[in-house]
Known about the structure:
single chain, alpha/beta, Lambda Exonuclease, Chain A, five-stranded mixed sheet, 13 helices, 12 strands
Amino acid sequence: MRDHFDHEIRTLEPDELITEPGFYNIPMERHHNQPCDGYSVTSSVLRTVELNSPADLWLRHPDNPDREVEDDKTAFRLGRVMAAYIERGPEGMEEFVRILPSAPASMSVPEMMKLAKSGSVRPKAPPQRPTFDQIVRYVEGNPTPAGARAVEYWYDIDRDPREKVSEKEWEMIAGMGRALAADPAACAALGGIPEITMAWQDDRTGIWCLARPDQISFSGMISDYKKVNTQGRPFNGWLVDGRITQHGYDMQMAFAAMGFEILTRNKPDQVGLVFQCDAKPHHVILREIEEEDLRIGEFRNNRALQTISNCIASGDWPGPGEHVEAYRRNKAQRERLLEEMNFAGVAP
């Protein structure tokens, strides 16, 4: 019988470590930066090993003295803002995001013509980032008016801890939020508790596991939201299914389902993904990850965990060319060519 009681969600102090399995309310940054009293992995870590190689993980591993810090890509930044918009709604975004004015140079000529004819006040362009010489002159107390404006404008922005988005980016996010709110199925899928970290230790390796789907419902639903840029291709089921395979989202959701089952002693009833196109009219497509694919994802996650454990023990983080294997032709092409060779009487 399903257990419907509300499980405790703990909030960690800034210097407190996770020492026991459970549900935790911690910032996303801490989730990805070793918040446990032992080495921890997230879904993205496991997918890096399974879809790429251990060497790709070692490149950004906390124990790597030459660790490379990943750039904060635009897709990651906008993804965080969109996730916050889903959680908070438009009214709760002021404390999370800062909207930067767009420069008039970013406007098209027709847009500027329309603005000029309307008699509207000319939009004020934000200054370019200051040069080093402008900063030196500002520090020495003899800046030019343009240099002073640039230094003060960008100093204020850079010390602001909120996420930064342009007016155009904010317009897109708000439009996507409205389209999402108008989709009953998407609203139901994303109606749980947002951004909770599930933490447990893997029995075989002792590695801490951290899963953080966008929404958890203790009644049995787990879901994650994906903003999609189609790069000019049609937004349809084929594209969505391809993204799941390409990025290992089946592994991600299987990892979350495994954590949910370990911590609640119940399997989730539904595990799914909500995809939304970032181009208007911001279509939404839902995908449920069914039991068989969850088991496949769980197998791949466990394999990645064991690989990481072996790498830690040996100190060796191999790349994809570690083992020499035979060429593997596409199965459909192989069957077609063998049939043609057989017809020609030269089959091997």
